[in-house]
Structure formats: C-alpha cells, structure tokens
Amino acid sequence: MKLFTLKKSAVQLFAALAILSAALGAVCGGVAHAQTVTAPVVVIDAGHGGIDAGVCGKSTGVKECDLNLDIAKKLKGLFSRAGFAAVLTRKSRAGLYGLPTSGFKLRDMKKRREIIRESGADMVISVHQNFYSDSARRGAQVFFDSSSEAGKELAVSIQSCLNAMDSATRKVNPLVGDYYMLECTDSPSVIVECGFLSNAEDEKLLLTEEYRDEVAHAIFTGALEYFA
C-alpha cells in the first residue's frame, strides 16, 4: 500500500505540473516543462477478441468484443490527450492467443497480464459488457478485487460517474469480483461492465456512438477524480 501511495502522489504531481505548464504556456508562449515528470501509465484492456466474441446482443447479435474495443480506443484517446501514457492490451479485433488452438483462452489472459506487468501500469481498466438471465437487468457496473483498497476506491469513483450519466437508468454500487484481470498487478484495477447485452434498451444504447462516447468519458472522469 505504501508503494502505491507514492505512485498516486506522483500522478497528482504530474497532473498539477501539466496544468501549470499549460497556464505558463498560455501566458508566456513558452514550451511546456512537464516533460521531466514521467507520465502515469494507464492500461486499457478490451476484453475478448478473435474467436472469443464474449457475449452477444440478444436483439441484434452485436459482439461484445467489438463494443469493448471501441470503448477502449475512446478511453485511450482521452487519457493520451490528458498527458497519460495510455496502453491498449488489444489494438484490433484479433485475440492475443496466437493460434486458435486448445488452451487459447488461457494464453490470451496470460498475454494480457504480460502486457500489464511490462508496462509498469499505474492503473488498469478492463472494458466488458454484461449478460444476465433476467433481461430486465441493465446499467453499467464496476468490479474490483476485495484485497485491494486502492482498487475499491477507483471502482467507487468510476461507478459514481457512470451513475451520474444523463442516460443512466440504474444507480448501483461497485461490486467485489474474483477475476483474473483484477490480480495482474498491485496497482488499482477495475473491470467495467458497460451495460447488459441481454437487455434490449442497453443494447440499443451501446450500438450508438454517442452513448459509447458518454460511457468512455464517465470512466475517464472517474479515473481522474480518483487521483484528485
């Protein structure tokens, strides 16, 4: 916990210097000086991919993996423009497992873990879509590892911003999740289930560019507020 406290302080310093640098540049026409501070690393994981489509929309059959990738790319753009070092685990529709042979899922997950660890991630956000037997269930839900207080704080911050969206229909609390992707690093990690593809209204919203933009911005804002 002490190690991450130091990391969080460094991110706060980075953000403060970035704002100060922008202000000085506007006044003096000078060059920004925040380059001397190492940019925090945010890993954005687009779940599934390749032959692993994830869940599919009940109404249209839209693939979860495609929605995940689109939202992940939007997040990468938001974080990059804010000065963070944004890393995607999956950059295309292909999976990360190599050949589609037996054991592909485990190879895919291990590759994601490798990318996260080699990046020196300060934060990990894994993007997914939900599916449930009760088609009335809807809305975005954030999961965190029970052993990570920092992960819980990040989840609460992101969930709060998702709940505040104009289109949010269900106000929920983040939940504990026992998932592989939450245990790849000691840095705060969350899984964001952006909506239920088993619900017709959620599926309809997720098919629109505007809603995916709104979800990405809410996740991004929640992450920034966590570091505030």
Automatic annotation (TrEMBL):
InterPro entries: MurNAc-LAA_cat, N-acetylmuramoyl_amidase_3. Residues 1-34 form the signal peptide. Coiled coil: none annotated. The keyword Transcription does not apply. It comes from Candidatus Coproplasma excrementigallinarum. GO terms for biological process: peptidoglycan catabolic process. This is N-acetylmuramoyl-L-alanine amidase. GO terms for cellular component: outer membrane-bounded periplasmic space. Gene3D superfamilies: Zn-dependent exopeptidases. The keyword Hydrolase applies. Keywords: Hydrolase, Signal. One of its GO terms (molecular function) is N-acetylmuramoyl-L-alanine amidase activity.
